[in-house]
């Protein structure tokens, strides 16, 4: 099962200037819990937004740059090559950014989406989820609180 995992605003905003536009600690915890022990597939810009590689995950970075070779990562030039590398993982995760989500959407069976209940000025967006192709199988609301400036909902979709 190939899973896309993302946090996107009501207007599908993902981020701006290669950074998130919100801080949701509980969403970070959930991301860590779900992805630990798995392959995580991402674009170069997403990888470069991390201070260092994330622990206990196999990083696969998709880039067109032929001389890109960061420590602790496998570098490929296509989604197909990334998925081939991750074929023995029962649940590899596609973790972004916007272009990588678009490339990965046709291959994935599941979407773990944190819908942030606000709209943001952004330069990177999550693709539209086509209702006819996906079924919402779980929804868990998280109200804003002293650690979370925005309400958000964990949404799990399964391909029809």
UniProtKB/TrEMBL annotation:
Annotated metabolic or biological route of this protein: Cofactor biosynthesis; tetrahydrofolate biosynthesis; 5,6,7,8-tetrahydrofolate from 7,8-dihydrofolate: step 1/1
Keyword flag Zinc: no
EC number: 1.5.1.3
Keyword Cell division: no
Example GO molecular function: NADP+ binding
One of the GO BP terms on file: one-carbon metabolic process
Coiled coil (UniProt feature): none
Domain of life: Bacteria
Domain DHFR: 1-159
Gene Ontology cellular component annotations, sorted alphabetically: cytosol
InterPro entries listed in its UniProt record: DHFR, DHFR-like_dom_sf, DHFR_dom
One Pfam family this sequence matches: DHFR_1
Swiss-Prot/TrEMBL catalytic activity: (6S)-5,6,7,8-tetrahydrofolate + NADP(+) = 7,8-dihydrofolate + NADPH + H(+)
Keywords of this entry: NADP, One-carbon metabolism, Oxidoreductase
Protein family per UniProt: Belongs to the dihydrofolate reductase family.
Role description: Key enzyme in folate metabolism. Catalyzes an essential reaction for de novo glycine and purine synthesis, and for DNA precursor synthesis.
Protein name: Dihydrofolate reductase
Species for this entry: Abyssalbus ytuae
Lineage: Bacteria, Pseudomonadati, Bacteroidota, Flavobacteriia, Flavobacteriales
